Amino acid sequence: MSVTVHTLGCRVNQYESQLLAEKLQAVSDQALVHVVNTCTVTALADRKSRQLVSRLRREHPTALIVAVGCGVRGGEERLRAAGADLLVENRDKMRLVEVIELFLQGRTGEGNGGWATLDEERLSGAEPRVRAVLKVQDGCTVGCTFCRTWQVRGPLRSKTPQAARAEAESLARAGHREIVLAGVNLAQYGEDLPSRPSLIDLLEALLEVGGVRYRLSSLSPDGLTDGLIALFAWERRLCPYLHLPLQSGDDAILERMGRPYTVAECLDRARAFRSAVPGATLGADVMVGFPGEDEAAFARTVDALAALDPLNVHVFRFSPRPGTAAARMTPRVPPREAARRAARLAALADGWSEAAQERFLGAEVGVAVEEKQGHLAWGRSENYLWVEVRGRGATRGTIVPARLVERADGRLVGVMVDRTENG
Ligand code: SF4
């Protein structure tokens, strides 16, 4: 089977696409198959999923076009109209090989199975990348009012520490030096498992695997416990960067969103992390234009972000999702005003990022090399700084020590540290 898997959306989707590609490669059928791993986090994501399906249909008129994942439920009609032959929801995503084979035999709708456990999902990671993604959690029961993800991702499921450790071992053997732990809501890791292991238990099991460093994709502030901060404080192989989905700096808006923390609690967690963990940096997700967000609420969001001193901020504009409580909420913020607020935050975020980067001038960091050209290389440090590394010997996929010497043309420049000089 000649298969191409196209991915939209988050790191969980990226992991699943890699796994699907590995599974489908093993199938020896002649069919030409394009799989679109869809996303539904915003109306734009839905539209992009459909556009990709229709482009593939145009470019490959005889291919089997399969739309899978988060954008399928509720999007069936429009995905079919865009040219999808087969639609597969998240529940059956890991059974895609079987579903496609049944479809090619003209047997559709057979064998809709239960939700696979995450221990059944195991990436070999045969094609080395700089950074491997390891999915350890799925589902969410928080039920934020603006979110469709929890509605399409099924029940809470966590990968046991043992299974995650074994998978990390094969990823390390395959040459990955950094592993990003991904989930729909990592703060709920382990809640579904009989022994209820915590994120700390998971990380301690993973740290038994040598030669790799670990990064959390993102963590809701309510999941950032003192115990977890303590582990980050002394374990240098845990990357000291946390991406916090803050969403708003106004408590009334957070309550309307159904978020499980207050602004003060989030800032307290951020301060605790930054003061305890050497080289700590933070990133944040924020949503502007949520129904009821007035100028004062927006100003509080700006203040909260400034207090976080973020290295990067992902700004989203509220997108009413069908079937969510927030889609029925009023008063709506006019799109032009939401756009103005998003632009303002993006401009401020550049300034915050510059200040956060400059704090590390003179420091030595470990850069995971993603790109290389001559004696220049580029990559992310453990605390997620984007660094241009000058010096010979940096190869793609390795982690090289670099001393940050200056900021030039908007980026940090580091000089490779020759370990021999330090003996
Ligand atoms: S925490 Fe909220 S936004 Fe995140 S997946 Fe769960 S319901 Fe959605």
Structure description:
By secondary structure, the protein is an alpha/beta fold. It contains 13 helices and 17 strands. Strand 13 (364-373) and strand 14 form a beta hairpin. The site of iron/sulfur cluster (SF4) has 9 residues, from helix 6.
Offer a few descriptive terms.
single chain, 423 residues, alpha/beta, Rossmann fold, OB fold (Dihydrolipoamide Acetyltransferase, E2P), five-stranded mixed beta barrel, four-stranded parallel beta sheet, 13 helices, 17 strands, binds iron/sulfur cluster
Beginning-to-end CA distance, first to last residue: 53 Å
Q: Please compute the radius of gyration using only Cα atoms.
A: 22 Å
User: What global shape is seen?
Assistant: globular
- Report the total helices: 13
Mean pLDDT: 94
Strand content: 15-25%
CATH topology type of the domain at 2-104 = Rossmann fold
Strand order within the widest sheet? Answer: 13-14-15-17-16
Give the tally of β-strands.
Answer: 17
The helix content, as a percent range, equals 25-40%
Bound ligand species = iron/sulfur cluster
Low-confidence stretches: none
CATH H level of the domain at 2-104: which superfamily?
Methylthiotransferase, N-terminal domain
Proper CATH architecture of the domain at 2-104: 3-Layer(aba) Sandwich
**Biggest β-sheet strands, sense, barrel:** 5 strands, mixed, barrel
Global structural class: alpha/beta
Along the chain, the helix and strand elements come as EHEHEHEHHEEHEHEHEHEHHEHEHEEEEE
Overall CATH class of the domain at 2-104 = Alpha Beta
